[in-house]
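User: Predict the full complex structure for these chains.
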Amino acid sequence: MGNADYTYPWSNDYNSHAAASHRVAIPPPQPFVKSLKNTLKETFFPDDPLRQFKNQSPRKKLVLGLQYLFPILEWGPRYTLQFFKADLIAGITIASLAIPQGISYAKLANLPPILGLYSSFVPPLVYALMGSSRDLAVGTVAVGSLLTGSMLGQVVNANDDPKLYLHLAFTATLFAGLFEAALGIFRLGFIVDFLSHATIVGFMGGAATVVCLQQLKGIFGLDHFTHATDMILFMRSVFTQIHQWRWESAVLGCVFLFYLLLARYFSKKKAKLFWISAMAPLTSVILGSLLVYFTHAEKHGVQVIGELKKGINPASIMDLNFDSRYLTAAIKTGIVTGIIALAEGIAVGRSFAMFKNYHIDGNKEMIAFGMMNIAGSCTSCYLTAGPFSRSAVNFNAGCKTAVSNIVMAFAVMITLLFLTPLFYYTPLVVLSSIIIAAMLSLIDYEAAIHLWHVDKFDFVVCMSAYIGVVFANIEVGLVLAIGLSIMRVLLFVARPRTLVLGNIPDSKVYRSVDQYQNANNVPGLLILEIDAPIYFANSNYLRERISRWIDDEEDKLKASGDTGLQYVILDMSAVGNIDTSGISMLDEVKKIVDRRGFKLALANPGAEVMKKLNKSKFLETLGQEWLFLTVGEAVGACNYMLHSCKPKSTADDQSEKYSNNIV
Amino acid sequence: MGNADYTYPWSNDYNSHAAASHRVAIPPPQPFVKSLKNTLKETFFPDDPLRQFKNQSPRKKLVLGLQYLFPILEWGPRYTLQFFKADLIAGITIASLAIPQGISYAKLANLPPILGLYSSFVPPLVYALMGSSRDLAVGTVAVGSLLTGSMLGQVVNANDDPKLYLHLAFTATLFAGLFEAALGIFRLGFIVDFLSHATIVGFMGGAATVVCLQQLKGIFGLDHFTHATDMILFMRSVFTQIHQWRWESAVLGCVFLFYLLLARYFSKKKAKLFWISAMAPLTSVILGSLLVYFTHAEKHGVQVIGELKKGINPASIMDLNFDSRYLTAAIKTGIVTGIIALAEGIAVGRSFAMFKNYHIDGNKEMIAFGMMNIAGSCTSCYLTAGPFSRSAVNFNAGCKTAVSNIVMAFAVMITLLFLTPLFYYTPLVVLSSIIIAAMLSLIDYEAAIHLWHVDKFDFVVCMSAYIGVVFANIEVGLVLAIGLSIMRVLLFVARPRTLVLGNIPDSKVYRSVDQYQNANNVPGLLILEIDAPIYFANSNYLRERISRWIDDEEDKLKASGDTGLQYVILDMSAVGNIDTSGISMLDEVKKIVDRRGFKLALANPGAEVMKKLNKSKFLETLGQEWLFLTVGEAVGACNYMLHSCKPKSTADDQSEKYSNNIV
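Assistant: Here is the predicted structure of the two-chain assembly.
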């Protein structure tokens, strides 16, 4: 191990347990390139995706590679009629949800309603080929639609220049796809991890609140409405137009909302009744349309969708707009919507995979999502992902594979080809009701309460996301929540806890006296545990804090008239790494301790720490004999020296008292 | 502790050491307000500055408060004639350095030379009252001057509009002071800690390189020169003007540079000869001026300072410019220069305090620096801090207290009142030589080599700061280095190491098998240590990584035909904290482990972790009996169960083999 034979001051006559001779090992040196390669692998390939390619023939490798990119090649050959029956039912069920939801969400993004249908045709087909989730149902998402609307709305007004706005939406979708695919290809999926669960809960809740408020426009049948996404402006806009409220529209909206919520209530009570909730939007649309058709309510203040173009997706690759005036907005919208869509989609995919006990590769999913949006942007689709509501219906309907997405796509295709005229009389207020009903389930106040109980900081992150989204705008909320989350990580390192350890009775174990109230201090010794890596960000703090612990301990000992402080033991078990600033800090602590006439000992430094302490010569300054494998051994050695240096009689008396502590 | 009596599956007949009954304690619940108060105190008041105020009379508190703000009140009454003699010599010595350095650095910032003298008059007086370092010599700093010049130069050209430029320099100084004081008052000093030692080494080296190159202008006597701070433009500017090089100027410059470096060389060899190096700049100025005066070299291409206004600092409070066009630049310059000046000044103060064994309060120093710059901005001074070179001379000259700063200020005042005409003939090339000589000592290549040996990442940070400063500009270098440093901290948390533990022979201790090559795996058990807090940023990673460890272990066991995996033990010793995402991760790991038919055990979760696991009901899911105080106890219990469930004969055979591992 490289440590030569040191003479331990106590080794001659220490009445020794064998344990006392354990040495702290310096890990065997590794060539720089090898250790760099190792670090990069652990950072970017924790799941070792190339594992199955090892020791295979080139032909087999090609097959495996294709199966990796297109999972359908892997499960396709094993596909049975049994599976198809299940997928057919699930696919038709989600199509009945996808059609009204698609139209509604497209309105949310200020895009033509037909785009919602287009977006439920091409992307699900792409996902069926490339996606690895069996339960995800692909389609447009509420929050993504809202984000597209509000972010693009800042540069182009959808009413003034609908064509430019539409083209920018395609361009943003392309960038979202490129960004998602790039994250997957370069294995940077961990960026999505920075959207913590708490952030997503707060963010989704905030976005849902904003969306619900925006739907007041539809419910009250208002023509003019603010595009700003902030609550105060909304409410002002709604309540300054009281004279324009249409009671017909409002009544219709409330009735359908009640119906949708009632359907959900029954579905929640009995899982078998999931289809009531799944079919409710479509039945609302049909009932609403029939009502308008027969009562001619469109002439009495109830707005309708109007004409929808027949035919499947036209190509839109020539519509992509790379005009430098709008490029920044398009890229920004693409990145933000792309990452949000990924975060939701992957979380949804993972939770259903958890249920059914299969594994989802995050980076592979990102590539699938990316390709799906790239293909979508060329075929008149806007941002798609894996909405939770649709996927849950898919799961409950008993889907087996991604074929349910193909079935849905075909159902949507048939609608596009033949059934669009049927939507002429569909009242907008029904779409608003559908959106509100979907959004209400996103406001997950129970999760927020849970956060408050378990982790106050996570609650603060969640609330800041919510408040930011509702009172400022979506980006502010997101930046606030992510900023706070990162600050928490930095603060953990910048302000590590230092814990005083004491002996657990009847053992050789030393634990925090705060946590274990029965742990006893060892007289003459101060044992400190440092709870984080020692980095530049905390080295000054730790020096100050350790000095203060020593001061406090001395004051306490002086006050009690006990033996003075003699040894300071630092438990390094939880110190995962150290940098050069940290080593300087240890040097300074050693000087401080020396100057006061105490001795410094380190217990259980890890591999990385030992490597660096050795290279920086700190080990020589400290003396190898002051390194111990465990706190117990350190205490044993210190106690031995403490008492063997005293007049014989006292030492004997006390050695009995402390014999428990000697390992 | 709140944990009820659980029946341990092995408690009936476990041939038990008493240790097996140790419970992991849940820390006693604390009221939310109290724990918040505690956290805030640890975060912002680690040094407990109000400690001395406890249990004092109001009158005493007032005195202590004043002494806290003005340390001179504390040491002043104890000041002796002995001290004064030492401070007088040190003060005169640093004044002889301060005058030429002040003039040189003011040129570096494109400010009138006289400002350098003004800045060595008022700020040292303020610092003497408020500062807590006994060795810091106050004055303008090279890097701060360079930064002021380059950052303000981006909005105003110093040659085109010298008055506006001057006023903006005062304004930037005011903002620097306000920012520094605010950091100190709000106890945000830890922001300065984010400038790691490695960053500062690289940054200082880069800035010194840039400054040296800029001085080529002075050495070659060039009139026109680029203001861009990037090396390639410099070199082009120098070498495209070869026809304008003045050999008289160049010869003079080289001679003086050689003299200055020689003086430093002797001083370094013998610490007692420090005064040679300290006096060298002043003697250079005197010799250079005499030479020019007698040879009339100013008419042969050697540029001179020219007239300096007599008299002490005029007030500049009315010159502060808050014009909105320049405000952003002034604030930005103030913040960047302020924080860099603080980082250097506090590091210098701390290192000398370390030598003399007294303590410096970082936040108090920040307030002193801030007040000194606020006062300076109103009295025609620009940014001041504690330059290393001047402070080192002060220290070597034997200063005792901040009175040496007062002495220096008076010497500068006398110069301002009576001696400014003497500088008329001082050649600019001598100033350039002084700057180059000072800068060469800032390029600390030895420190960079040390970083490479000890910590490769710190070396990368250092080099990125250097390269950024030299090839792009100062801000790019700084942002790059700080960004990388922060990324490292985030990466530590986002990609924590997971270590497989094995048993150290002849002990009950379990350590990483990578570090301790003699550590033995325990058959049927996988023991993993997680080396960082479990946060949103790493929970997905950890789930994947732990799954992979389990897969690997199973493969290995299958290949060797050994008993299959039965227990997975997570050592939580190094997990300082957990958030709700982390708890979900543990939940999922528990599910994964259960599904495969293994059992999950946790060893030594800390106080914070226990608190949250308890609140989130994870402890109930896991079962209290699967929590252990140490890995040893966990292994003991698992081994017991492993063998007691087997046919009697085998169990007996094996129990001997593993008896070492049972605690």
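Chain A touches chain B through 92 residues (CB under 8 Å).
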